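Chain and conformation:
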Amino acid sequence: MAGAGIRKPQNSLTARFVETVTEPGKHFDGHGLFLRVRPNGAKQWVQRITIRGKRSEIGLGSPPAISLAVARKLALENRGKAMLGGDPLAERRAAREALTFAQTVEAYAAVKLKEFKSEKHRKQWLSSIERLAFPALADILVRDIDVADILRMLEPHWRERTVTAKKLRGRVEAILNWATVSGHRTGDNPARWGGNLKELLPAPGKVTQVQNQPALALGDVADWWAALERRDGMAAKALQFLTLTAARSGEVRGMTWDEIDFGAKSAIRTTPVATLATSATWTIPASRMKGGREHRVALTPEAVAILQGLPRMEDSPFVFFAPRGGMLSDMSISAVMRRMQESEVKAGRAGYLDPRNKRPAVPHGLRSTFRQWAAEQGYPRDMAEVALAHFIGSDVERAYQRSDMLERRRAMMSAWAGFLRGDKVVATGNIVKMGYAP
């Protein structure tokens, strides 16, 4: 068994070892560099070094943010500075105290963004900071950021994009809180709302009302659906499926074949739609849901028919795939609705406008159209909300309400499909044909 005093060979670690090691302890490399693995699995690069006759340890960061190659480079640089009479430890302390906001975001993200449930949300968080905060704050030392800097960042967005600006303020406040606790700044947080920015900016609720996504008017649904069914292409099929299921765009675009259960008959291309329709279910895993909870969708005969007609791409798991096999972009589905609207305008018609704000309807607004239809048809509120994957009631109520009403929702979604075709369907099950053929 190797003792603590035995010299390890230079550059004895490998990148693979650093990635996979779980044994707690100190795993040595060259130039005094070692990887410290704690009992909880946390890893940190540390360098033992003698500076002006005094033995010290310098933390060099943690993998995977700091790779083995980078750690070796830092250790070699530190050793060179110490041999020339410098003090790399003092330099690191000074550097920590002089981080720019951009550097602080990088350090904060390496630690805190692990809390996010998906890579998509991590990218969205970073993108919002880079687009909206960096123009005003990126190069300012984090210790020097004051209220005037925060106002300069927020004011271009506060009135026109209030909801976005509120999120931005909260994120910057969290970053600056972390910087204070980590020793990079002192004093009050200039991004704090209460007793601070609240006195300088108008209340968000007084600036602007939340703008709902433009929805399709119920009276336009049958015409719009008939026009959509005449369109070809993967994005058009995805939009049809999105409409039939009242799902979100990301849920449909990320849908994979293994999320679909066609019931007792599993051969999608050989089983009649009528046989599948009574039990076909799409189960979206919690990792892909906005609320972080698994969601089941009852598939109607029309939804199953769309799936039956789709090609499959080898080596692509996606049901609605992009030309190269990856996930469809959100813009591709939105583009279908935009082109449908443009066709209406070219024909001299107003097109498919939201009845309230007169803006062209968009894919996400179709969920509002479904919700309005369900309310007007007398379906129970909770059942419609569950169909939209919304949380209902308090935490206590949800703990006792375990059923997701799947079979009751199946009947509701079949009625919704009939309404899209032009049937006037009421909750009692009576159907009046309005003249639109499927």
Remarks:
- The longest helix spans residues 162-181.
- The CA atoms of residues 14 and 20 lie 10 Å apart.
